[in-house]
Amino acid sequence: MPTLDDILLAGLIVGGHRPWRRSIVGADVWKFVTQQLAEGKWTLLGFWGEAAAVHMALLDEQRNQVGVVTLECPGGRFPSVAAGHPPAARLERSIRDLFGLIPENAPDDRPWLSHGRWPDQPGNADVADAGIPGGYRFLPVTGEGLHQVAVGPIHAGIIEPGHFRFTANGEAVVRLEERLGYVHKGIESLMAGADLAKAVKLAGRTSGDSTVAYALSFSRAAEAALGLDIPGRAIWLRALMAELERIANHLGDIGAICNDAAFALMLAHCGVLRELVLRAADRCFGHRLMRDCIVPGGVTAELDADGVRELQELVAEIRARFPKLVELYDNTASLQDRTVGTGKLSLELARQHGCGGYIGRASGREFDARFQLPYEPYDRLQAQLRTHVDGDVNARVWIRIWEVQQSLSFIEQILGQMPQGPISSSFESEGEAGREGMAIVEGFRGDILVWLRLTAEGRVDRCHLRDPSWFQWPLLEAAIEGNIIADFPLCNKSFNCSYSGHDL
């Protein structure tokens, strides 16, 4: 059986694509790759398009091999991937929305990101009424005693917009279908023609709670395209920021999940700890979310001796207070009654969708880009990848708890090992046209992929950003099935998928 590397080498290798190979293949190979995905032999990392081509990023988890296959489609059509591999469906629908490329024999021809309000966009002429109430065709559900409940896109809380269409039998959910795309900002279009300084700022605004992870992934992709090495101290500072971002988000999520189970005390205490992290980040790096601190070539903010002491005190404070909150969570029977056994996601579905982050690991999928596809400095840090087998809300809480503890250890290790020296390197972005780079970085939700092509002037020719939520949102539909409608907020928060990162 050919390996992923065999398939890549059999095609036309694209020069200047780093650090993994990209190969232009024919339709037969494209269909073979789809079959491999359908059989669970490879994992889909990303699927995107441009004017006359489509690309798939693939992972062979057994060999830790990564590669990109490209199918040119001058006729504007390509063999559907979703026809054999359902996790590709929404990405495939978005390719049609954004570029007008038609997937042949696709199982779902409905728009995804488009709501029928882009008259000048390709592929939208036949969905011009999609933005009108009733214009979008939700999937039919038949049976005795069923009713529908429509939630969103405007919600009661201060959260992003998304529509959830429940079909229920009494209180039990028979089917949930999502409708997203309301937060589409055109990030990738805005990047086209931008210089790296502007583009990295746009990347950092794809999903605000992951601004560090997105800026890091974009910067690593740009540095790969340029063949640029950055100073050692910058590498460690980037990891420090990424772990602070991870802790802040996990603390916020743990409290919010408990609040959705009517246990507001955990929300208050976790909120206090999250605020301590954000204030420390502000004092150390000049911004609570550390936005615009990571750029191609390094970082823009230095950590002085006072900052080191600040972070050491922060770690000590969380270590002193967090275990008591964990004990409170674990020993509150009414809280456990709501989280244990609720919203279960199977390992089989997590693997099929390549679901990363705490959602995948809570269902037993052993994947973390920091360890499976290691990048500096994580290859030099002591770490333990922990998973859970239950796949329920409780398991997703525990993965977050363990990752907070792991990130505290990482911060201590980083502060103890971080070298001295410059924090950025100068570089010349102009050069040969068509230089390409790709990066996969572990954000707090899971793996973020950025693929980039540069012009001869060093500007962005094409950039694709893939949020982990693309492969997580569909699984929320599966996890809620059979649960009661009242448990949806709990399940939804335990997933905490990004609307903005998904909608681009």
Please tally the β strands and state the result: 16
Residues in β-strands, percent = 15-25%
Cα shape: globular
Reported for the largest beta sheet, the result is: 5 strands, mixed
Helix coverage percent: 40-55%
User: Can you list the strand order of the major beta sheet?
Assistant: 1-3-6-5-4
Parts with pLDDT < 50 across at least 5 consecutive residues: 123-133
Q: What is the number of helical segments per DSSP (H or I, 4+ residues)?
A: 17
Which descriptors would you attach to this protein?
alpha+beta; four-stranded mixed β-sheet; globular; single chain; 17 helices; 41% helix; 504 residues
Account of the protein in words:
The structure is a single chain. The protein is an alpha+beta fold. The protein has 17 helices and 16 strands. It is globular and about 60 Å long.
Short description:
The chain is an alpha+beta fold. The protein has 17 helices and 16 strands. It is 41% helix and 17% strand.
